[in-house]
Amino acid sequence: MNNNRKYLVALAAVLLMHGCARDKDTAMVTDLLRDAKQKLAPDRRTVVFDVRGELTGTMLTLTGEVHSAGLKDQLLRYLKEQREYTIIDSLTVLPSPELGDRVYGLASQSVINLRTTPGHAAELCSQTLLGTPLKILKQDHDWSYVQTPDEYLGWVDDGLFQLNGEQYRHWLSRPKVIVTTEYGFVRSTREPGSQPVSDIVAGNILALRAEAGMFYEVEYPDGRTGYLSREAAEPYARWLASANDTPAKIVATARRFIGVPYFWGGTSAKALDCSGFTKTVYFLNGVLLPRDASQQALVGVPVTVADNFSGFEPGDLLFFGTKATPERREKVTHVGISLGGGKFIHEGGDVRINSLDTNDPEYSEPRHKSFLRAKRIIGAGEEYGIRRLRQLPEYTSHENQ
């Protein structure tokens, strides 16, 4: 009995030692992959990096998903630089191979919702507009995981029209119109009161079939057709050629949305969140801003902040949030558009005008206390992260621009 007890104690010690070693290996791999994600794909809103690793001796097996073949190559190089591993690559590179060539999509409703996970109860993270080209990364039953031109990721179900490469290129080549009114309808005939085909919002893009008197005959990505008043839209090529983000145009566009209610994730004239408002205003003047306030704060030219706010020019983006301390990082939570000086327009319950100037009747003490910094978008180039639609192939037609 005594010998058996000694054997069991020794066996338990060996098993415990092996278990500790496995735990140590697991923790080391977890830390290594976390560091790789921070270095190679720090923003989960725009890049897929869902990688797991299992270490057996010096053999590291990788499973999960990465955004692209280029990102996978970067990851493998990084891991080899850190440790002498033999890597077993079982990663899935997106778009999913199951999609074949059908990796293109177009929003086919006036506004479609993007959610954080595939399900109607999931958080709404953003929206995208009719005619927006989308990259499809994978599918889960009726849901598709897509990336918008501003690189934002989300799950959509209804309102996505899926295409193969040939169909997508054909759509890009067709003449289009862009909706310029805040809100309206495409109707089934040229009669003003005829049955609606759908509602429309500013920034919607449809194919132009023909010009029909006071109307455009238009076609949706999914093949529906209808009639759109000329007063509500403009030929896309002409609009794009004249789109220009001047201070006067940005301010005039922003004021068009005064009173529009707040809606978390909203990016249309129906309802907006703060960064959805700034993004929409700039989009309607030919500029594609990043989606969220914290992302918008990373682009543009820094603006010097004077005590009297004299350095602010109309169109500058003003950012608000929690200032950095020794214990925590800065957190950007809100954005607005400068009207010059201390005045700014923003989505704060509804689109409204406030001021950072304590002598102004529209002064907002909470916004003053939470002000962080300003960035200039107007006049900034690609070196400052500013992208204009006329520079992006998904927003240009090779035959009609």
List the helices and strands and how they pair.
Blueprint: H1 2-40, E1 49-56, E2 59-66, H2 69-82, E3 86-93, E4 104-107, E5 111-115, E6 124-129, E7 133-140, E8 143-147, E9 153-156, E10 160-163, H3 165-173, E11 176-179, E12 183-187, E13 196-201, E14 205-212, E15 215-219, E16 225-229, E17 233-235, H4 236-242, H5 247-255, E18 267-268, E19 271-272, H6 274-283, E20 287-288, H7 293-296, E21 301-302, E22 317-322, E23 331-340, E24 343-347, E25 351-355, H8 365-370, E26 371-376, E27 387-388
Parallel strand pairs: 2-3
Antiparallel strand pairs: 1-2, 4-7, 4-10, 5-6, 7-8, 8-9, 11-14, 11-17, 12-13, 14-15, 15-16, 18-19, 20-27, 21-26, 22-23, 22-26, 23-24, 24-25
Rounded mean pLDDT is 93
SS content category: alpha+beta
**Percentage beta strand:** 25-35%
- Low-confidence region ranges: 11-21
Give the CA-CA distance, first to last residue: 90 Å
Helix content: 10-25%
Q: What is the fold-level CATH name, i.e. the topology of the largest domain?
A: endopeptidase fold (from Nostoc punctiforme)
Radius of gyration: 26 Å
- The CATH architecture name of the largest domain reads Alpha-Beta Complex
Helix count equals 8
Total domain units: 4
Largest sheet: 6 strands, antiparallel
CATH class of the largest domain: Alpha Beta
Overall spatial form: globular
* DSSP, total strands: 27
Describe this entry's structure for a reader.
With 401 residues, this protein is an alpha+beta fold. It has four domains: 11-94, Histidine-containing Protein, Chain: A (2-Layer Sandwich); 98-171, SH3 type barrels (Roll), CATH 2.30.30; 174-242, SH3 type barrels, CATH 2.30.30; 247-389, endopeptidase fold (from Nostoc punctiforme) (Alpha-Beta Complex), CATH 3.90.1720.10. The chain has eight helices and 27 strands. It has helices at 2-40, 69-82, 165-173, 236-242, 247-255, 274-283, 293-296, 365-370; strands at 49-56, 59-66, 86-93, 104-107, 111-115, 124-129, 133-140, 143-147, 153-156, 160-163, 176-179, 183-187, 196-201, 205-212, 215-219, 225-229, 233-235, 267-268, 271-272, 287-288, 301-302, 317-322, 331-340, 343-347, 351-355, 371-376, 387-388. The strands form eight sheets. Strands 21-26-22-23-24-25 form a six-stranded antiparallel beta sheet. Strands 9-8-7-4-10 form a five-stranded antiparallel beta sheet. Strands 16-15-14-11-17 form a five-stranded antiparallel beta sheet. The longest helix has 39 residues, at 2-40. Mean pLDDT is 93; it is low at 11-21.
